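User: My collaborator sent over this chain with a note saying "see what the structure looks like." That's all I know about it. Can you take a look?
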Amino acid sequence: MTTASPPARRPAVSHGGELPADPQHPRTLGAALRRAARDFPDAGIRVVAEDGTDTLLDHATLLTRARAVRAGLRARGVAPGSAAILRVDSGVDYWPAFWGCALGGVVPLTVGAPAGYDADSPAVAALLHAWRALDAPVVLAGAADAAGLAGLPLADRVVDVAELAAAGPAGAAAGRAAVDPAGASADADVEPGPDEVAVLQLSSGSTGTPKIIPLTHRGLSEYAVGARVLLDVRPGDVLLNWLPLDHVAGLLLYHLGGVFLGASSVHVATGLVLADPTRWLDLMARHGVTHGWSPNFGLRLVADAVGRAPGGRRWELGGVRRMVSGGEQCLPETFRAFVAATGVPAAAMTPAWGMSETSTGITFGSFTEPGCRQVVRTASLDGDVEWVEDAAGGDVTELLSVGRPAPGATLRIVDADGAVQPEGRVGRVQVRSARVTPGYLGDPEATRAAFPDGDWLDTGDLGYLRDGALTVTGRAKDLVILNGQNIPCHEVERVVGAVAGVRAGLVAAVGVPDARTGTEALVVFAVTDAEGGHAVAPADPHATTGSAAERVAGAVSAAVARRWQLAPRRVVILGGRRPAPFPAAAVAGEDHPSRALGS
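Assistant: Without extra context I'll predict from the sequence alone. Here is the result:
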């Protein structure tokens, strides 16, 4: 049964309500850490290194060490309002460096770990671009990072974090120290205004040179309010992140928000989980985690790893209240597989949407609530949406609603001319909130393009509203145009992920411009467990011979041809059982837009 959108519909505008009045809620990063050290002394951050060792920095110790770094920055003449780039691999060194910047009024920009320091590395190019755009700021480095940075043009601006800490008060760099958050050393903390810039983020650069995204103290403070209201983050909770800290969700959602709200956080080296995804579950059980998160690919990694593990292991994870998923399309089948494999309650599964520009997640849904799971006619996703009763039969797509906006935020859906659409019609997703970036640093052209109508941020996402809740259907530019057909990349990836022999979640579909035809060619990349190495070929949809990888490539081509009546120009099959090549790229953020949570 099909349910079409009714002829009379309300405008697609959804307001998250007013921010709750709370005079005790901190308005700046420094105020948040000082309050956490005073009011929540037993909470803090636990850093789990790649070798499995862990170190606890309670909030008081973190404040003391951060003040040592703050003093070191000041001794080197780094003035309040300056920027600092952080390339610190060790979490034990990173967090005091980050907070030392915040307490000194210095604005930190965290950059990802490059695979190497070669000049043609995209991560190195992004680092150098940011350094030049910020007028050659100081670069804070960990011991493991200094050697690689020494070969770059910014070498004379590199400072070892340990040296900064040594320049602070004696003994502050090591051990737990008794600290009075309001004591004499607090007088040296810089207290910026709420509308001043607190942190800088880099966009992924997937569409060109990465943009520098400033986020204000007010934006971070209001994000924390949203996490308290929509995610029920509260004192005593434990948040866990295993994604790199240049990812806005790992930094804001699973640490800064916790400091504002009196929660603890566990930060795990990414490599430790990628090497064995079940370690994520071990750590959640060991530390009593109440809130976790992962993009869809991470949920799938875990579900697959549990399925391969002998003995049918189970974990006691009933205490997980929220498992947020975003950063790429939230797939219902992945949610179901993750719940079945791990024991995380289905009610905890939380599809979410947001981006660096919105100070991370700004809408949160709930997997088990009515209206979250939506089955729609695929052909209707370029206009008025048609819902169907179930996914059986017909050309349908199953989507997950990512929920309503946080307090203080408003969403709307507009057409290409900026006219507000009715609910139930697909259009461009725009958002307005004090959490939204004021614009891209040093890039007025990009700022004008992102804010075509005053303070409404055009996110570049496509979606629709139903009863005020957002469902994201794709990216405005995340389409392959084949013979005049607009085909969403994520829909190709969903179809290919269901092919036998393909690792679901480890698929990428891209369009390659074809100057001869004026259209695009579809190229599909996929990881397989099948033996037989790699296959790169114009895949024959009728292939039944050749290597296992070639047969998988043929099956992929056949599945796409059945769905869209055309075959991919190329299917690239990556053999082998280790999933690292695809997740590592996704983790690094080099292949994704700046959106951090959502589809």
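A starting point for your reply to your collaborator: The CA atoms of residues 4 and 386 lie 5 Å apart.
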